[in-house]
Amino acid sequence: MAKPGDVIDVPALGLQVEFRATAESTGGTYSEVDIVGRPKGFVTVPHAHRGQTETHTVIEGALRVKLGAKTHILSPGDSITIPPDTVHRQLPHGSGPGRVRVRLEPSNGIDGFLETLGTMEYRLGFPKPLAGARFVRDHAADGYAAWPSLNAQQRLAGAVLRLADTEYTFVDEWDVDADPETVFDILADGHTYPEWWKPVYIDVKPEGNYTLQHFKGRLPNHLLEPRLGDRPRDRGPRAVREATS
Length: 245
Known about the structure:
- The chain is α+β, with helices and mostly antiparallel strands.
- Helices cover 21% and strands 34% of the residues.
- It is built from 6 helices and 17 strands.
């Protein structure tokens, strides 16, 4: 969790974030940071902050802010306040690095938003697809690109994350007329599966300390199961297989 004095270095975006006040230090009333450097990449595209008032004050250098149809050039000592949910864009102006003090009221989740900038993977100043999808999922409410709509961005991010999820979970539950120890012994002996589960299993063969189970299905998955002598008996019949795909 960010605290005043923390510094986040984001070379891919050409900036550093210096925390002056955080949600924790102000009770969520506001967060304030100095943005130091010459920002580039996705942080310079038109965007909005949901439910937050944003104030930029130039300390060093110069800043160009596009708000509506008007472009504002800010020099040291100048400030501009952007109402909540208002599309805007800020860019470095002139040459050399700058220092701009940014206050967002209330804090909402902006501290986490800014911290995540320092941990994402980038390509040419923009998050890589999976990193960007996670960013939208976790932080879109605190800052989102003006186009496409926020709803469309969240749907796209969800689709990317679903495609990237390679974990396969096998869940099945049967009721059998037998004591738990007998059920455990039968399930733990993978060699017998093709005998009593014929609609599913094709064959089973030993492979080192495991049995390789080949079964029918839409996905080409194999189950690797420790042999009976290697399996702890106190896990019970509901936890008898480890799947790999």
